[in-house]
Amino acid sequence: MPRGYFITFEGPDGSGKTTQLRRLAASLEAEGHNLITLRQPGGTPLGDRIRNLLLDSRAESSLGAIAPGAELALMFADRAQAVAQVIQPALDAGKIVLCDRFTDSSVAYQGGGRQLGSEQVLALHRALFADLQPNLTILLLPTLAASLARARRRNRHSGKSGKDENRFEQEPDDFHRRLDAAYREIALREPERVATIESDESIDAIHQRIRGIVAQRLGEHLAIPLKP
Q: Helix/strand/coil (H, E, C) string of 164-223?
């Protein structure tokens, strides 16, 4: 049985990556592919509890400010559980794994945004996961103003229902400029893995671009042609 294929979606909050992951999953499932989807933080019972701590802006009112190092450690605790419980078993079973964020997010948010530096993040990844890397990363980079406006508008809407996952969106614009720069550094450093879509195009237009990228890369992996 061939090893599965690991695709991650990355980008700043409000980039549309979650929507695009769902659209891609629906397309691949319609073609009969065996796949799983998950998000980070989250994707396991432990991960969902960590997600509540890390993303709820109200958590710090009871816990106190989360130190950057503690934030990074919690992100990797979530990731280690997801790899052990979901990602690695699925890859070993030959499935396609679509993951909403992975280590690149920690490089951008904690390494760049929190200014911990990328090397500390990458060293932790190597220590925990050795050579496990996505086969393909779709990096969505709309203009920073557009992504921030979308993210903050979305979280104002979700906050009315009592759901609060806007802790990072509340960070100042300098934080978001640093994480945008960190994502761009990742793309320059690993062009073979990272496919960057730098656009404010419509959801449909970006979906078609992603389908073309995945059709080529996944087709090469499976040695069969796929529909773009």
A: CCCCCCCCCHHHHHHHHHHHHHHHHHCCCCEEEECCCCCHHHHHHHHHHHHHHHHHHHHC
Per-residue pLDDT at 33 exceeds 80? yes
Q: Collect all residues with Cβ–Cβ distance below 8 Å to 173 and sequence separation of at least 6.
A: 148
Rounded Cα–Cα distance for residues 156 and 176 (Å): 18
Q: What is the per-residue pLDDT for 192?
A: 95
Range of the domain at 62: 5-222
**C-alpha dihedral over 70, 72, 75, 80, to 10 degrees?**
-100
Of 201, 210, 187, 195, nearest to 28 by C-alpha is: 210
Q: How many independent structural domains does the chain possess?
A: 1
Q: Where residue 109 sits, what CATH number does that domain have? A: 3.40.50.300
Asked if 103 and 8 count as a contact pair (C-beta separation under 8 A), the reply is no
What is the rounded distance in angstroms from the CA atom of residue 142 to the CA atom of residue 68?
A: 26
This prediction's pTM: 0.91
pLDDT score of 187: 97
pLDDT band at residue 92 under the 50/70/90 scheme: very high
